[in-house]
Amino acid sequence: MNERMTQEKAWKRLFDQWIFGLFGTFVVLMLPISLLTDELTWGVLYIACALIPLNILYVKRYQMRLGFQPKLKGLYRRQLARDVINSVACFLALNDQLLFTSNVAYIYVTVFIGSAILWTLNVNKQTKRQDEGYVKIDKEAI
After folding, report:
1. b/e for 119-136, b at 16 or more Cβ within 10 A?
2. Residue 75, H or E segment
3. Each residue of 6-54: pLDDT tens digit?
4. Fewer CB near the last or first residue (10 Å), C or N of the chain?
5. What element of type H or E holds 140?
6. In the Cβ-directed half-sphere of 88, how many Cα atoms lie within 13 Å?
């Protein structure tokens, strides 16, 4: 259990560093370029390219967790799918004005983002319940 927690913390640190680097690059590089060229498509391209390494980090976390508890493969697969869908929903939420000009597409995107949020809450609740069950079993084994 300690090894799993150590690797989870290491992954979280890597994720935080990546997010802060992403934000710093956006503020230092992309925002001035977008303001000077007066085009927001650079920001859309930047965010789209930034989602690729983010999803790779999610896949690495899935593989790490699967190595520790293969019994929870279905749960971890749902978490991976949820994370990828949330990154797509975030991209659509940030760029909806540039990508969608029709009201119908905007409504579909809004429904997609709302369902991604509800699915995230459901999967998070299930994950906490499963983890608490395994923590209880690990404590009883000691």
Report:
1. bbeebeeebeeeeeeeee
2. helix 73-99
3. 877 887 888 777 777 777 777 777 777 777 777 767 767 777 777 777 7
4. C
5. helix 103-141
6. 10
Does the pTM exceed 0.85? no
Closest CA to 76 of 137, 132, 130: 130
pLDDT tens-digit map of 72-106: 788 888 888 888 888 887 777 777 666 666 677 77
Specify the amino acid at residue 106. Answer: Y
Structure token pair of residue 1: 């259990």
Six token digits for residue 139 = 């404590």
Question: Which amino acid type is present at position 10?
Answer: A
| Nearest 10 degrees: Cα torsion 19, 21, 24, 25 | -110
Calculate the CA dihedral of residues 14, 9, 61, 24 and round it to 10 degrees. -20
